[in-house]
Amino acid sequence: MTTADGGFMSLGPHLVNLRNGRLTAGGLASTTAEDVDRIFEVHLPRFIAEHPDSPVPLMFWAHGGLVPERTGLAAAAHHVPWWLANGVYPVYFVWETGLLQALGTRIRSGIDRLRPAVPVEEAADQFVEWIARHAGGRSVWADLKAAAARSVDRADGPSPIAYDGDGAAGDAGPGAEAGDAGPDVVEVGVGTDEGGARYVARKLAEFLRQNPGRVTLHAVGHSAGAIFHSYFLRAAFEEGVPAFESIIFLDPAILIEEFKRDIVSRIGNGVKTLSTFALGKQRALDDECKLLNITFYNKSLLYLVHHALEDEEDAPLLGLQENVEADPVLREMFGGADPRIQAIWSPQLDGPLDSRSDAREHAGIDSEAVTMESVARRITGQEKIEGFPGILP
User: Fold this and answer.
1) How many other C-beta atoms are found inside a 10 Å radius of the C-beta of residue 120?
2) Residues 156, 3: Cα–Cα separation, whole Å
3) Residue 93: how many CA atoms within 13 Å on its side-chain side?
């Protein structure tokens, strides 16, 4: 792995950095096919050799759509040592960045352009939802979901060049932070033929065939990371990966319809256990969306997705408690009859140590210690673990 400023060099053995679904050239960190090869041919085998007594948990992490590239990389750098200390080998997909910034830009411009057309009875959050719908918020969300889909393109499928930006080379894109754009570097052939997550899935399948029983597989997706993993899992099974021990979603932004179609059918048929950790209804309503430390929406981001960003208004999401409880299939599925499936709604501070959460924010559920320690216990199967290091300093 190469970096624009050298600051994330230590992430190389644990990073798959994607842009527009392709392995990235340029930006703050670059992941090439050779970097992915080294994960499975050098770094992971070395870690396994250091932990010979039992299969090593191999965990694939996909972050949500809120974070700019720098934030996603910084979070990975902060978390990786903790995973390693708990005997877990982590691989972080940093896959598409800056949803909140892109939405904020659309909303700010939409306020100036569309305010005269807003119905006068709209309250503050309804106003933001109306603006998001009419000022291009849906296209921002659709682009993010499309990036997840492009990440699993086959080599003979569509092949956009992976630039350092969402458009032309050097364009950091509407959601990037100042300083995120690196040199205008596009390596010939990098990511032009195959989605980056598809390449990882293919190399994973090859590794498993050559090293049977050496690892157990786990996938964790935060927010839109659940959407990303719905594609990555499909690609992994298509490439011959036999099974994932656990799938864990944190405040997932995936549509219930897509969750049923892409994930539920795999339970017991490639997915051994599935769990979600999410804000309970009241905590989701008490959450806020902030941009540059200014609140622009007085609920969890999932409500903005639910009310305004999907094609269908009020589209049911897996991360909203009232949506899950209103769905007869999910209500029964998460009702406790099947021990392989569980939903934990924050706050949940009693019961088994692997089933607790005190998360208060959609954006921060992946840095909340009680939640993350529950996730680690599920992945390792151990109650005694190293404590989570907390939020970024």
Assistant:
1) 4
2) 29
3) 38
DSSP letter at 387? P
What is the value of pTM for the model shown? 0.86
State which H helix or E strand residue 291 sits in. strand 289-291
Omega into 347 within 30° of 0, i.e. cis?
Answer: yes
**Which residues, including other chains, have CB under 8 Å from residue 46's CB and lie 6 or more apart?**
none
φ, ψ (nearest 5 deg) of residue 329: -65, -50
Q: What span, in angstroms and rounded, lies between the C-alpha atoms of 56 and 282?
A: 38
φ/ψ (deg, to 5) at 29:
-150, 140
Q: Shortest CA distance to 205 belongs to which of 233, 246, 245, 247?
A: 233
What's the length of the chain?
393
Q: With contact defined as beta carbons under 8 Å apart, do 236 and 73 qualify?
A: no
The DSSP output letter for 254 is S
* Rounded-to-integer distance, Cα 13 and Cα 386, Å: 21
User: Under a CB-based contact definition with an 8 Å cutoff, are residues 190 and 144 in contact?
Assistant: no
pLDDT over threshold 70, residue 254? yes
Burial (CB count within 10 angstroms: exposed 0-12, middle 13-18, buried 19+), residue 185 = middle
CA angle 141–147–129, rounded 5-degree value: 5
Alpha-carbon distance 151 to 214, whole Å?
Answer: 26
Of 56-60, 105-109, 172-176, the one with minimum mean pLDDT is 172-176
